[in-house]
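Figure 6 in text form: structure in, sequence out.
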């Protein structure tokens, strides 16, 4: 009985430590985003909006990629927290049983690599939109038709089998640990990649909506982050996803009609 109580104490301590680490990573990412938004606003006031309409340089692309990568960390780390905590708990029990284990950060790194890859794709898309003069200085799509199309496509995506399958996986993280466990650091990294891939399949179209609301619109970033978390953890998250699909589709058609 005493050994069981001691193990439970260690598990609670590990959960608190891992959770504190996740909160710190997410908080630092948000602080960077607030700083970056303020910095961009100051630069716009000093230089005017015209430089925003000039072609990007390599350094512009690198800075925008960094912004997207940090934004994905800020948005996705809270939603992956339940999975990371489960992984940490399994590792603690394996260590207590004197079985091989790996640091939890290896799993998280694999997960974030997937979203870093998405950040590169998002930066490339933004670069092309900018080059085609389809992006305003506020980093919002300048074409009402394109904005409406993104909203409608994102709404309809909520009803697809791919969205449903990926969301089910994200809502039941224990299944990955039970059916796809891999030993060693590389195994933990691959598990992080797989879980991140499911999360990407679930959420990528929602992230594209940042081009509709504004890439650096932090209120929208926060709302999307909260919705992604709710989809994964609230009891009726799948129904919430469908409601959002209806709302986005209707909003898109309203904008198409010049109403929204």
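Output sequence:
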């Amino acid at each position: 009985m005493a050994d069981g109580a001691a193990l439970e104490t260690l598990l609670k301590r590990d959960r608190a430590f891992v959770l504190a680490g996740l909160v710190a990573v997410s908080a630092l990412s948000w602080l960077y985003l607030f700083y970056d938004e303020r910095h961009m606003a100051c630069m716009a006031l000093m230089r005017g909006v015209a430089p925003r309409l000039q072609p990007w340089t390599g350094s512009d692309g690198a800075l925008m990629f960094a912004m997207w990568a940090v934004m994905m960390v800020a948005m996705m780390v809270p939603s992956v927290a339940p999975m990371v905590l489960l992984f940490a708990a399994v590792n603690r029990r394996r260590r207590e049983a004197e079985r091989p284990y790996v640091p939890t950060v290896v799993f998280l790194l694999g997960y974030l690599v997937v979203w870093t890859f998405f950040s590169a794709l998002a930066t490339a898309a933004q670069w092309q939109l900018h080059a085609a003069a389809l992006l305003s200085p506020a980093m919002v799509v300048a074409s009402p038709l394109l904005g409406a199309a993104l909203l409608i496509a994102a709404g309809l995506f909520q009803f697809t089998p791919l969205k449903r399958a990926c969301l089910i996986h994200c809502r039941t993280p224990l299944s990955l640990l039970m059916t796809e466990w891999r030993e060693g650091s590389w195994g933990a990294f691959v598990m992080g990649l797989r879980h991140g891939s499911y999360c990407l399949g679930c959420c990528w179209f929602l992230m594209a909506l940042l081009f509709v609301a504004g890439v650096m619109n932090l209120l929208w970033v926060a709302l999307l982050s909260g919705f992604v978390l709710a989809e994964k953890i609230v009891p009726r998250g799948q129904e919430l996803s469908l409601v959002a699909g209806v709302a986005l589709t209707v909003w898109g058609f309203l904008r198409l009609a010049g109403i929204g």
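Caption detail: Residues 2-256 form one domain.
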